[in-house]
Amino acid sequence: MVSLDNAVVARLTRSGETFEIMVDSEKAFEFKKGKDYSMENILAANEIFKDAKKGERASSSELEKEFGTTEVFEVAKRIIRDGEVQLTTEQRRKHVEEKKLQIASIISKQGVNPKTKLPHPQQRILNAMEEAHVSVDPFKPADEQVKRVLEAIREIIPISFETIEIAIRVSMEHAGKVSSVMHSIMPVKKEEWKSDSWMAVVEIPAGMQNEIYEKINNMTAGTAEVKVISRKAQ
After folding, report:
1. At what angle do helices 122-131 and 89-110 cross, to 10 degrees?
2. Domains contained in the chain, number
3. pLDDT at 1
4. Are residues 18 and 80 in the same domain?
């Protein structure tokens, strides 16, 4: 069990009532993101509080009313997942920076400059986020924050989300490997196996074009035929 001296408060407000638990902040944060942790390794006290600092405990009737159970670990899970976990200043800074990188990576892979049709490097997107003073929620999934970030940085750099269809043709020597990899990372819309080659049409985010071309060329020693056959703005 976590030491109370090192614990922070996780808090959830429901129907105007506040419920608090004492937790290891880092483990609670990881649990909130989906990592499987036992509540025994997260909680500093097997109690549900109305006010943890004052030691005021929530009653069984209050827990039953709001959560449908009085089982401490079950209630604690819901508080962490649906509520707010306190972070130290350094922890918050660390997790915000990690989330910024995740968001910038998504935008770099899926977005392009609409004039040049080339992707923006991740660092350029990070710089635009900084210039636009974009705030990032360390608890919210990166993909759910992309739209809001895009709206902010479009005032600084031209960017659009596009998908492209590319046609691929590789010799039978490399067909099995290329087919397997393509199926694992993107939708294969059409494919045809011939006696001497494998041909396919795949759809990818426009920003991933160079990455996919490089991957295919590496697998085929540069012998593959790859070309863009259509573009579609999202």
Report:
1. 120
2. 3
3. 64
4. yes
